[in-house]
Amino acid sequence: MTATLPGARTRILLSTPDVGDREEELVGQAVRSGWIAPLGPMVDAFEEQVADRCGRRHAVALSSGTAALHLALLQAGARPGTAVVVPTLTFAATANAAVYTGAEPVFVDCEQESGNLDPALLETALTTLRAEGVEVAAVVPVDLLGRCADHTRVAAVCERAGVPVVADAAESLGARHASRPAGSFGVTAALSFNGNKIMTTSGGGMLLTDDPAIATRARYLSTQARQPAVHYEHTEIGYNYRLSNVLAALGLAQLERLDGMIARRRALRAAYAQVVEGVPGVEVFQRRGDQDDNCWLTAVVVDPGTAGWTAEDLRAALDAADIESRPLWKPMHDQPVFAGRRSFLNGAADRLFATGLTLPSGSALTPDQVGVVMTALTDFLDRHR
Ligand SMILES: *Cc1c(COP(=O)(O)O)cnc(C)c1O
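^ thats the input. predicted complex w/ pyridoxal-5'-phosphate below
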């Protein structure tokens, strides 16, 4: 659907929903079927197909990825008096979900090249916390910008420490690590279908697991923890976290188109790589080994000493051309709301925040818009040679 409505935006954004006729068709079908809310056959089908795609036995469709993380952490035993280890380089939702449970988030830094949780530093953190008698309920590796964390090494470290993994795969649906799909790692994994993600239900998420007891309990907790009684008996606090059937219709249509959307994002990344090729001091972030990534967002990393300009200079130039770009996630240990929280740092996240810039990466970008972005980038680089 092209944006021809009054007030339609001309600004080129980082990542917007990519929807069309198929979405309209399935949402219409959901409406006509009478299955509007809360649940329905399209939720069941969506869960089945996502579980299948991610190599999981069970999937529970929820109202957001944050809700999925929250329920996964509750079931891992996160509660007041425990700690949850979270990468410092992530979106705030990962840490927020830990705080919802009453647990303390503990931040661990990343590897410079991938931006993902540094397994060696994770091991140091877990050893230190154990020596201090801190109970760690879970470690939450994040698949940053659609690059899977090094789940092989993270799992080994966590197994040695006896700590379960809750994988934050909000950004990585469709990516792979060691021949396994994103979402297949950890005791549980969380997906997000927020509007800016690789595919969207306008808002939504999914909890994935192989453990039937975890899936059953997630369904129960996400529907206000109702006991099976006609009068709504409650023995614990629940949440209103389920996904509606209408939104699942969007998800089913998006899932059919997921591979095509990933291919378009990958092509866009290749175009960026070509434009910056040979330019001193700038490279495409996560470029090496990205054949297994879903290329959700493409970023460049700028070394100002070599390039003679900064990521902020580029951001300002693109902004002047009505093109959105954004620094990589501001690390959680630098966020005012998490000031003073325990952190294990190596400097990589701060460096990436200072030097990284995410660029328009959405699969809904038209060829014209891609042309506008590539021209603006080329012009900037020419002016700064
Ligand atoms: C988007 C995102 C989330 C949250 O997902 P919502 O569906 O927006 O609640 C969690 N973690 C990461 C890393 C994300 O990018």
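Residues 64-66, 90-91, 93-94, 142, 168, 170-171, 192, 194, 205 surround pyridoxal-5'-phosphate (CB under 6 Å).
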